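hey can u run this one w/ flavin-adenine dinucleotide bound, need the structure tokens asap thx
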Amino acid sequence: MIDRTKSHYEVIVIGAGVAGIYQIKLLSDLGVSATVLDAAGDLGGTWYWNRYPGARFDSESYTYGYSFSKELLNEWHWKERFSSQPENLRYLNFVADKFDLRKYMQFNCKVESAYFDEGNDLWRLRVNDGRELTCGFVIMAVGLLSIPTPPRFKGMENFKGRSFHTFYWPHKPVEMAGKKVAVIGTGATGIQVIAEIADKVGELIVFQRRPNWSAPLNNSPISEGEMADIRSRYEEIFKTCARTPGGFEHEPDRRGFYELSREERVVLWDKLYSSPGFAIWLRNFREIFTDEKANAEFSEYIADRIRQRVKNPAVAEKLIPRDHGFGVQRVPMETRYFEAYNRDNVHLLDISETPIAEVTETGLRTTEREYEFDIIVYATGFDAITGAFDHIDIQGVGGVRLRDEWSDGPSTFLGMMVHGFPNFLMPSGPQSGSASTNYPRGIETGVNWCTNLLSYMWTHGYNRADATFEAQERWAAHVKDMYSAMLMRKAKSWFTGYNSNVPGHEHGKIRYLVYTGGAPKYVGQIREVADHGYEGIVFDSGSTPIRRGGHEVESNQPKVSQ
Ligand SMILES: Cc1cc2nc3c(=O)[nH]c(=O)nc-3n(C[C@H](O)[C@H](O)[C@H](O)COP(=O)(O)OP(=O)(O)OC[C@H]3O[C@@H](n4cnc5c(N)ncnc54)[C@H](O)[C@@H]3O)c2cc1C
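ok here u go:
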């Protein structure tokens, strides 16, 4: 059990998801005094919170799992190619138990503020249980999709039935049989939950403002034999992930879109449509992401697929996006989603035509009429990428607030540091390589890099590390430049910081949130910075002695590969 009376640690990690678990594993290997704080009741992050029916990976399970331990890889059997939330949570618990990491973790601990005490090179963290904890370094493993954004309808508090955002889906099973259910939102979560509950509820009305492109996940079980084969290929699998832009096994088709005839392109697309996972997105022609005409032709191909699957032509047309092309935002993958609309008990309501006016005691009222429900499900997404940072009152040098610095969008050095916020590390922060890739592959890269930076500082007797303003400006400009080549810059998506439920995140005001240059380029750049003595970072030994708590960190600690 963790000692809750201890108030100083060398490192405090905020967040016990995929990133926080791996981060504490490396810190414990180094013998550093460290703890993990999480607002949740237990570990798992995304997979602790999102318990809605249908929640599952769109990354191949075996490319999502950690790669750092051969033993771990040999011991875990993924049961499905794209495994579901309960199994993903079991996996993260298995990892934490295997490496005895739970003893470093404190749950139901929401960090409300973090303030840099300049005189002492210390971070002072205020936790919701009233404690103040101090540390030399804060590691922000707070997640990119960890702040849910419910809609802001009038009267939401008046509804007498059950209602919840999918992030807060109850831990106990929700009785759905025979119930009248509303699902609001048709993004990645809505698409998963709608397909899963359509045949289990009495009546389902889907409130859609804007449709999303989506294509079949093509999930399947993984047998003992297949798992043995995956285990024997792990080295090769992770090598492939490291080589591809998205950190997946999927590699783009290198043939030029215009070098082939339309018929040849369709041959590829037919194959991809029945292939598992993001193949349809990431094994496609590269022009899909950059060339309007190529994107439009492919989008029309997918639109035809939707028309073939949805029996009512008017409903099919409503499910086809008009305001963006396929793949310019992260593509939600589906299983029988479109077929759900062929059921008599499922109805699609276009709230761009008849908006929701208010939530009533018994249901919802649109500008057209009133509907009664037993359950309202808000599948309205997240304050993505910067949300968890904005929700903590973070003050750096001179009392400058991070949320003010980032009010028009984040500016970072390598997505992992912010000028004026010393000893504040974000292994998978905004503008890092994580968000646009298979996330854990990016997380391992970021956590390794941050841990190596800490080891470097401890070896050299440095107390303080801060990114220079110039280095940060260069990085932020580089991230912004890369958006200019991508069609995604025009999309109303979380990659551009759009969220109508978050003030200031309106369309047309792009927030440059993700690194779009691909994983190999990102890894190359951060490695180069490290290889050049952490160029762009100013170190200071300060006057205060180096606090290391726990065991001494040896100066010849091996570097963790990036
Ligand atoms: C439904 C869903 C499906 C997804 N599927 C995939 C997928 O297939 N492939 C993929 O690559 N990615 C996927 N993602 C993205 C997913 O978030 C990442 O894969 C990964 O789980 C992120 O891990 P993390 O540790 O960085 O953050 P998280 O798992 O989000 O964990 C962050 C933790 O920080 C805690 N926290 C935040 N703020 C505070 C605070 N102030 N005080 C204390 N604790 C705090 C939160 O409670 C949370 O537990 C999915 C996301 C969702 C929501």
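Residues 14-20, 37-40, 45-46, 48, 50, 55, 57-59, 64, 110-111, 141-146, 189, 388, 391-392, 428, 438-439, 443 surround flavin-adenine dinucleotide (CB under 6 Å). anyway lmk if its weird
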